[in-house]
Amino acid sequence: MDRLTEIELFVRIAELGNITKAAEKLELSVSSASRYLIGLETRLGARLVDRGTRRIYLTQIGQEHFERCKQLLAAFQEAESLVSASAVSPNGILRVTSTASFAMNHIGTILPEYARRYPKVTVHVETNNRYANLLDSDVDLAVRTREYESDSSITVRRLAETRRVMAASPDYLTQHGIPRDPGDLNQHQLLLYSYANRPDELHLTRDRVTTVLPVSGAMKSNEGQVIRAAALQGFGILVQPKYVIYDDMVSGRLVPVLDGWELPRLTINLAYASRRFVPAKVRTFIDFLIDHFEAMEFERKWTE
User: The CATH number of 92-159+267-296 is which of 1.10.520.20, 3.40.50.300, 3.40.190.10, 3.10.450.710?
Assistant: First the structure.
C-alpha cells in the first residue's frame, strides 16, 4: 500500500505542482507527503522533481515516470470500478444447478423475465441429481432439498416446503384398484426415486402414528421426470415431491392415493458460497426466485 500511496502522491504532485495541495488531496500531512516523495526517489535511485520556491517541477526522468504512473493508476482505478460495478450491477455468467424436474418447472420458466430485467447476466443451468460441491466447482447457486450443509462456508436460504405424495394415472387405478391402507401397496407396482432418503422404505404417518413399509419398486430411477412419464403411461404408483407432479394432479392426469397419510416432507433450499459481498448476479437471482415463489403461492399449493 505504501508503494501505491507513493505513486498516487507523485501523480498528484506532478499535476498540481505543489506538495501541500497534493497532500491535502490524499488527506496526508505535508511531512508525511515529503517522506513518501523522498522514499520514492531513494527507492528508484533517481531525482524525480526539482523543488522551486513556489512550485515543484518534474525532471526529465520524472516526466517519463509520471506518464507511466498515470497509466498504472488509471488501470488500478478501472479495475476497482469494474469490481464495484459487478457488485452493484448484475453482470457476467451465473451458473445454477438443480434437479432436471426443478429446472424444467421453475428455472426455465422464469428465465425470460429475469433476462429482461438483467440483460447483462447470462444464466447457465446444469441439471444434476447429485449435489455438486459448491466450493470445488464453478457453481454459483444450487437448489437442494436438504435442511443443512455440512460445510459452514455454505449459506442456505429456504425457498419452500413441499409434501411428498403417492399418485397414479386414472387408467392404472381403474385396472388395479385404489389402495385403501399402506398394506395394500404390496399389491401394487411402485415407481421409486433411487436418490431418495431410504428409497426402499416408506414412512407413512397418520394421527401421529408412523408406519414403516418396506417396498421394492417395479421401477426405480434417479430422475423424477422418468418416474413421472412412466406413471402417466399407467405403469404404477409413483412417490414424488408434489412440486414435480402438481400440474398433473390439478389436471387429473395423476390422482393422489392414500392422501390421508403423510410422507416426510422436503424443504427446497438455495445454497451458495458464504462471502461478505455476494455478487449482484447471485443476489438478484435469489431474490427473483423467492419473489416468484411467494407470488405463485407454491408452498401453499404443495403442502395443502
Answer: 3.40.190.10
The closest alpha carbon to 100, from 139, 122, 124, 126, belongs to 126
As a whole number, the mean pLDDT across the chain is: 87
| Rounded Cα distance, 21 and 273, in Å | 45
- Of 262, 258, 256, nearest to 184 by C-alpha is 258
Domain at 164-257, CATH homologous superfamily:
Periplasmic binding protein-like II (3.40.190.10)
CA–CA separation, 219 vs 191, rounded Å? 5
- CA pseudo-torsion sign 165, 171, 176, 181: positive
Which CATH class for the 2-86 domain? Answer: mainly alpha
252: pLDDT strictly greater than 90: yes
| CA–CA gap between residue 194 and residue 199 (Å, rounded) | 6
Q: Where are the domains of the chain?
A: 2-86, 92-159+267-296, 164-257
CA 102/CA 129 separation, integer angstroms = 10
Does residue 66 surpass a pLDDT of 80? yes
CA-wise closest residue to 150 among 128, 131, 130, 127 = 131
Where do we find the cell 418396506? 214
Q: Which of 28, 22, 20 is nearest to 1 (CA)?
A: 28
Residue range 243-265: mean pLDDT, rounded: 95
Residues 167-197 pLDDT 10s: 999 999 999 999 999 999 999 999 999 888 8
